[in-house]
Amino acid sequence: MLFFKNDYGQGCIPEILTLLEQANHESFNGYGQDRYCEAAAELIQSKMPDTEVDVHFITGGTLTNQTIIRHVLRPFEAVLAADTGHIATHETGAIEACGHKVITVPNNAGKISAASIRKVFNAHMIQYEHMVYPKMVYISNATELGTVYTRKELEEIRSVCNELNLYLMMDGARLGPALMSGIDYTLNDIAKWCDVFYIGGTKNGALGAEAVCIANTMLKSYFRFVMKQNGAMLAKGWLLGLQFIGLFEHDEFYKIAKRENELARTIQEEAIKLGYPLFMKSETNLVFLVVNPKEFEYLKSRVDFEIWDYWNDDIVIRFVTSFHTTMEEVEYLGVYLKEAKEID
Amino acid sequence: MLFFKNDYGQGCIPEILTLLEQANHESFNGYGQDRYCEAAAELIQSKMPDTEVDVHFITGGTLTNQTIIRHVLRPFEAVLAADTGHIATHETGAIEACGHKVITVPNNAGKISAASIRKVFNAHMIQYEHMVYPKMVYISNATELGTVYTRKELEEIRSVCNELNLYLMMDGARLGPALMSGIDYTLNDIAKWCDVFYIGGTKNGALGAEAVCIANTMLKSYFRFVMKQNGAMLAKGWLLGLQFIGLFEHDEFYKIAKRENELARTIQEEAIKLGYPLFMKSETNLVFLVVNPKEFEYLKSRVDFEIWDYWNDDIVIRFVTSFHTTMEEVEYLGVYLKEAKEID
Amino acid sequence: MLFFKNDYGQGCIPEILTLLEQANHESFNGYGQDRYCEAAAELIQSKMPDTEVDVHFITGGTLTNQTIIRHVLRPFEAVLAADTGHIATHETGAIEACGHKVITVPNNAGKISAASIRKVFNAHMIQYEHMVYPKMVYISNATELGTVYTRKELEEIRSVCNELNLYLMMDGARLGPALMSGIDYTLNDIAKWCDVFYIGGTKNGALGAEAVCIANTMLKSYFRFVMKQNGAMLAKGWLLGLQFIGLFEHDEFYKIAKRENELARTIQEEAIKLGYPLFMKSETNLVFLVVNPKEFEYLKSRVDFEIWDYWNDDIVIRFVTSFHTTMEEVEYLGVYLKEAKEID
Amino acid sequence: MLFFKNDYGQGCIPEILTLLEQANHESFNGYGQDRYCEAAAELIQSKMPDTEVDVHFITGGTLTNQTIIRHVLRPFEAVLAADTGHIATHETGAIEACGHKVITVPNNAGKISAASIRKVFNAHMIQYEHMVYPKMVYISNATELGTVYTRKELEEIRSVCNELNLYLMMDGARLGPALMSGIDYTLNDIAKWCDVFYIGGTKNGALGAEAVCIANTMLKSYFRFVMKQNGAMLAKGWLLGLQFIGLFEHDEFYKIAKRENELARTIQEEAIKLGYPLFMKSETNLVFLVVNPKEFEYLKSRVDFEIWDYWNDDIVIRFVTSFHTTMEEVEYLGVYLKEAKEID
After folding, report:
1. Given 3-state DSSP classes, what are the helix, strand and coil percentages for chain D, each rounded to the nearest 5?
2. What is the pLDDT of residue A311?
3. Chain A interface mutation, best of D24, D37, D58, D323, highest count of A Cβ atoms under 10 Å
4. How far apart (Å, rounded) are the C-alpha atoms in residues B239 and B260?
5. Which residues of chain B neighbour C8 with C-beta distances below 8 Å?
6. Computed over its alpha carbons, how large is the radius of gyration of chain B?
7. Please, what is the average pLDDT of chain B?
8. B249-295 pLDDT tens trace
9. Are residues C111 and C171 in the same domain?
10. Which sign, positive or negative, has the C-alpha torsion B83, B85, B87, B93?
């Protein structure tokens, strides 16, 4: 059975395992105040020299999003997200559980635009006090559909956030693949655009660790209180710093993502060649195809993948490449895709 | 200046003032455990003989909706509402503030259908655990657009709620006008269809009082704890029972609503005759017209009303009749509407 | 049956009823943005000329406390209160329901001291991040035990709040009786000491209205959003402003409180003379006596009062005077107290 | 520098590292629905054959406590804990952040008694509706002071919980040391006494994993929804199951705890012999001594430990043994303790 189900179905890169073994002979301060977390924060900071960021480590995207948003917003303030955004769909209401409405904006290929943000903001201002106050914009980059924001889009969003006095937050669960998708910006730019964002480790070769980067000085104080209250401060916090050392010490973070993207592109191109309609043209490590029931049945018994949606009789399926995926597996998948087409 | 701004801009019917004066010489137990609340509950219960309901009194629609939903739902459960529903729009995130997502369904003339409920429910079941669990259906009757659910629509909604094991809640802020709109059902039917609903007094001639009716036995216990915790249990609770005696003792509740509807219908028919497009064909005491900027300016200086929406250059405005509105005022409004048309 | 159960068991002073009748012929803007609320705010503001306060009207003490605290505190911040404080005991966890811990301090005659505040604060600083951050001090004045803070106590508390950067909030449910208890400070002083406080109307002759006064400029913005979200913004808001006009236009607020205190003092002195032990020496309109079971039984059948506590076989009972209490009732109570003693 | 600071300052037992390396070549279903979690759940279930428990894995004590309590309680319900209980002190208000009051009971050597539970419950029933409803009893075993509940104490607590219809929850962050402290009960008994409890891995040789055991059938449904909403469902969930396989496959869980206790007892006995007063007689892996300032200074430069409290000039310090502690380290500590005494 080939595994293309997701990018969190396998352990971690060898560098991290090695660090774990090495750390197993040492003693540490608890709760993220240790030499590994310190070193990892410095490594991450070195990637964004133009902005002074505070770095904190948390395990899991939902917990990270929840902790950030709980920290930033006052009770009556809301966060604006694409209707495909992770916080709007697949976090079981974690943001509402902290008391905040997620205002959704119709997505365009998984993204939202500066224009749609302004429109929603203005609509809320008319009913001042009787509606929530939109105070934060949440974007995922790469998006849940595998697409990536362009420099121009991000600059426009930052600009509208400046104009309307909104915080900009980036969910970087798949920030690695976004940065390696051929775009013309880096972590250093992201730190300048965003008030707060996180760099996802879990889906990019780590065991389970995300690095929260707080760029806006006004948002830096007391974050550790909110982490602790939200159950997001690990006793053995050095385990998280350690993983980011593994990811960034020799730029494995980027190398993994680059390779994932290439493998995914190979799959996508093969699928196009074979005549599979794309649900969405991906630029990263997610591939979305539309298959008919026969193709679906053929693939299902040979490949582990996710069903994304149902389109009448057809099915949208998702293949995901990870740090663990091999070219051999990609070639096998190509063969199965070809055979599935032939049985039609 | 004519007042057609809303149905909560004036005091109360004389019956209630008289009761207030009379009660001012008596002493009462606090927190709604007094003879007025008891008598009011019995009066209300007498309108729904086929169901044994628990009756509680709260002031204000937002506080009432919030208290009910907080009481009924478990943390991960969500309430489903029309995208025009009051809890989804004009309660400043009061439901999310209690931790619950409001899942919105596109409205059809302010209403939602059994089919749309089933569709949303099924979509959530596919992503079990990763999405909130839709557990309650919230409908407003009359709706925020002045429309009223038919018997057939309500029976279908009840049926899908039974099938999917969902609670049905009716926001009856304008239940009086709904019941007097010519439909073929009564409070007795509503008590059979809904698990919980409230009868709005504030917008129907009272000073400020809503009667929560809990029909589902499973939801009856501990409601007073949630009221108290939510700041919804008034020390001088008899003031609320008293208002419902004023509304129901001689059926003023129905008479007021009937008259409001008739006055609104007169306005709506006059507007149609004069050639004003309707934004929505109302069946109750709300009238929605589309006016151009010149008409708007003319009316604005003579009549107090709400702007509902902007349509390019045109403006959707809302006139509301209340217990306090006179036929003379309606006739004046007709004259102004005619004059506004003539200046075009 | 004599009524000494509480100060919220009867309607309102005649001035308020008269205003209600008069307002019943007028039309108003909703949600507290009307001429009555404006005039009432000005009246209240005129009592505290040295501080510019924002005034908002809410119905009910629990809802008021909850709204203020939700507005002021960030998620990880906590409020410090006496263990007898209303928010710590008789609000069914309303503050915790907003996510905030109530840190309790042992009371001294219902009060807390600057020293105890500092001690609790310092203890929390040692466990920084692992404990909540104490950010607000809540005091009731008069206290739940009928006692009143002295000028010196309040100045010391303000001083420690300045030193530790804490907000000071005063629950003024019974602020009238406190101000009329013979102390040497006024509303003008309270506005200088407190960041936020409320003047209770419900227990001082109104139907149900409290006036929130925000003195700290940093806390003024967006309060109406939190009110609305918390269900604390009444549609017919003018009803609340109106009540405060009734209370303050001719200083009825003070006159009522003065009279209540005098009647209570008469009861307390009579009780002392008769040999009843006091549970607490009250300075306001609450009287706490210790009675034995026989005395209790005798009184119970003649007077409506509250049981405050059980002391082995004895019972602590509470008598409360209100705007409605007459000297005749107080004399009758004196007779019953005498008779109860005689049957021992 | 000797490390006796805590039991979460070092990595994990070698068995777990080996499993990690082995699992690194495999692919898994996400979110705890994998073969490792399944096998771990079966292993744990095998230790409590008389009760059918549901087992879920979460990382971190605060997140686990918060998730359980959020799952179990309705909004107005509260949890009762010792004033030394972890949820009452060192979780930065995590339980209140979910809306629930933590009612504290004065501890007796870190424990609460059936009698104190009944007393608090009864006091709340008198003020029914105006106070929170105590619905759950939280106990830590071993306690935060290193003490352990006896069989008799637990049977009495269970009995009062049955009588008053309360849920019993055990925080088992240090359940291993408790079970190995010489008491006459096992996990099988705990599963019969508790409605829900958790077995702590983080402080007992794992990297970071706790096993929630739900024994009460009424509490089993929908727990995964609350986990996900609370950010407590790890994408790479098999990492948690895997750790419990490492702990329980060859009973390392028990062996570690036994050894920790023995090492701690050695320290405690040595300290007694040297004349150090105990703050608390520990039965597990925590040792609390009272030292004077000179002793403190001497030890501080040689040993890493926690300050627990200040007693006038003296200081209460805590030594903790862990899976990683060696007899050699214990002997060195003994030497330092001796030397510290001699410099007095």
Report:
1. 45, 20, 35
2. 86
3. D24
4. 25
5. 30, 235-236
6. 20
7. 97
8. 999 999 999 999 999 999 999 999 999 999 999 999 999 999 999 99
9. yes
10. positive
